[in-house]
Amino acid sequence: xxxxxxxxxxxxxxxxxxxxxxxxxxxxxxxxxxxxxxxxxxxxxxxxxxxxxxxxxxxxxxxxxxxxxxxxxxxxxxxxxxxxxxxxxxxxxxxxxxxxxxxxxxxxxxxxxxxxxxxxxxxxxxxxxxxxxxxxxxxxxxxxxxxxxxxxxxxxxxxxxxxxxxxxxxxxxxxxxxxxxxxxxxxxxxxxxxxxxxxxxxxxxxxxxxxxxxxxxxxxxxxxxxxxxxxxxxxxxxxxxxxxxxxxxxxxxxxxxxxxxxxxxxxxxxxxxxxxxxxxxxxxxxxxxxxxxxxxxxxxxxxxxxx
Length: 307
Fold this sequence. Notes:
mainly alpha
C-alpha cells in the first residue's frame, strides 16, 4: 500500500511538472508579442521623426533660397515651418534671427540666436550676431561677453576682434581696445577698420596727431572709406584746423551722402567761420537725413542765414 501511495505521488508530481512545461511557452509567446508591438511602435515613431526631419530640411532649404532672393517674409515662414518640424535645427533659428535683426526686430533676433546657441554651444556666428545687437543697443558688457565667446570658438576671425575692440572703445578701455585692433591687424594687415578703431581711441585720449596718422593709414588702405574721412575730419576739427576738417567732412558726404552727422559737423564749422548760408544748407541736410539736431541750434542756423 505504501509503495502504491509513493507511485501515485510520483505520478502527481510528474503531471504538475508537465502542466508547468505546457504553460511556459504561453508566457514566452505573450512576452514576444509585447516586445514585437513595442518594436513596431518604435519603428513607426522613428519613421515619423525621420520624415519630419526630411520635410524640415526641405523648408529650411526653401528659406535659404528666399533669403538669397531677398524674400524675407517668405524666408521667415519657411524657417518657422522647419523649426516646427525639427526644433533642434539650429541653423533655421540662426538665419531667422539674422532676418529679424535686419528687420529691426531685435528681441526676436536675440531669442533666435540664443536658441541656436542652446542647441549648438559652439555656434560662433550666433554669438557674434547677438553681440552686434547688444553693441548697437549700447549693452557693451553683454556684447564683449558674446564677442569673447566667439573669439574662443574661432580665434582667427579678425572681424570679431574689431567688434570687441569697438565695444572696449565705447567703455573707454583704451589698452584692451588697442590690443584687439592690433590682433586684427596681425590677422589682416590690410584692415582699414582696425586702423579707424585705433584712431578713435587716440581721439578719446586727445592724441589727435596719432589719431590722424591712424586714419591716414586707413584711407591709404581704403580710399572709399567715408568713416575714415569723417573721423579724420573730427580729429582736425578738435585740433582747430577748420579747412582740413571741412575737406574731410566734404569727402565723407561725397562718399556717403546719407551721413547726416557729417553734414551737421560741416554746418557747425561753417557757422563758426560765419559762412551762415552754407551752415544753414548743411544743417537742413543733416536734419532731413535724421541727424540729431537740437531745435534751438537749428533755429539759430536758420536765423543767421536770414531765413
